[in-house]
Amino acid sequence: MSLSRVAANQALFRQINERIEEKTEEIAFGPDAELWEFLCECGAENCVEHVQLSMAEYESVRADPTHFVLLPGHELPEAEVVQRENERFTVVEKIVEETELEQTDPRR
Question: What is the pLDDT of residue 98?
Answer without folding.
Answer: 53
